[in-house]
Amino acid sequence: MIKGSSAWKLIHLPTEIPHDRLLFRFLCASAGMTGRRIVVFTSSAELGPALTHLVTSRAEKAITSHGRFTLGLSGGSLVSMLSKELLALPQLDCSKWVVGFCDERLVSFSDPESTYGVYKSQLFSKINIPDSGILTIDSSLPVTECAEDYTRKLKEAFPGEDFPVFDLLLLGMGPDGHTCSLFPDHPLLEETKKIVAPISDSPKPPPQRVTMTFPVVNSARCVAFISTGGSKATVLK
């Protein structure tokens, strides 16, 4: 499922974990964390606060360490969960956050399939993150040019780095095991040089997308997979 660094080998789930439970799995490369961890919750009411604590604690450490917090977001059920929990925090300060998207669908921002569009309506419009801190695609471009444009934006946001090093990436996982828009048996699984890759034949609609590649995922200081629902249980195990 995850290729590249040996730190990304999947570890087996205990067979006694019920299929209807929620899983929160994260891998952190920094010395402050203990490596791979799997945490299982019985409901989103338990998962949400734990996820929010991870985000805010990593943000505090990153801002103290190097003056900003860089966060990569995914869509799906994560949007509403994260938005609800962050907005419930008193005195949330996102003025030093820089947010990118782990993958994005090539649709207009007003389309409900747009990950940025949903985050903008549910979260960004309600917090003090500056517009310059949100790295979006240009959905008016053809998919290849869109990937190149987004690559340029990431390079500008992460100067001097071969691959952007995000403080935290929040990833989802499909029932087929894909993360970002990196699907099983797809040629993009072998990509080692590009930061962002275009995809025009996504098995899951819409077909045109741009996605971060495995080198970017594996360069992050901390990566969390948030998986919910029984349809994910078999492939995750």
Defining key terms:
6-stranded mixed beta sheet; single chain
Question: Brief overview, please?
Answer:
The chain is of the alpha/beta class and 237 residues long. It is built from 6 helices and 9 strands.
Largest sheet: 6 strands, mixed
- Beta-strand share of residues: 15-25%
Give the spatial strand order of the biggest sheet.
2-1-9-6-3-4
Rounded mean pLDDT is 86
Q: How many distinct helices?
A: 6
Task: List unreliable stretches of 5+ residues.
Answer: 1-17
Gross geometry: globular
| Helical/strand content category | alpha/beta
Radius of gyration from the alpha-carbon trace, in angstroms: 17 Å
**End-to-end Cα distance:** 11 Å
Order of helices and strands: EEHEHEEHHEEEHEH
Description of the molecule:
The chain is an alpha/beta fold and 237 residues long. The protein has helices spanning 44-66, 77-87, 115-122, 143-157, 214-219, 233-236; strands at 22-28, 37-41, 69-73, 97-101, 103-105, 168-171, 196-199, 209-212, 222-227. The chain has a 6-stranded mixed β-sheet with strand order 2-1-9-6-3-4, covered by helices on one side. The radius of gyration is 17 Å and the shape is globular. Residues 1-17 have low confidence and may be disordered.
Lay out the secondary structure.
Elements: E1 22-28, E2 37-41, H1 44-66, E3 69-73, H2 77-87, E4 97-101, E5 103-105, H3 115-122, H4 143-157, E6 168-171, E7 196-199, E8 209-212, H5 214-219, E9 222-227, H6 233-236
Parallel strand pairs: 3-4, 3-6, 6-9
Antiparallel strand pairs: 1-2, 1-9, 5-8, 7-8
Helix pairs in contact: 1-2, 2-3
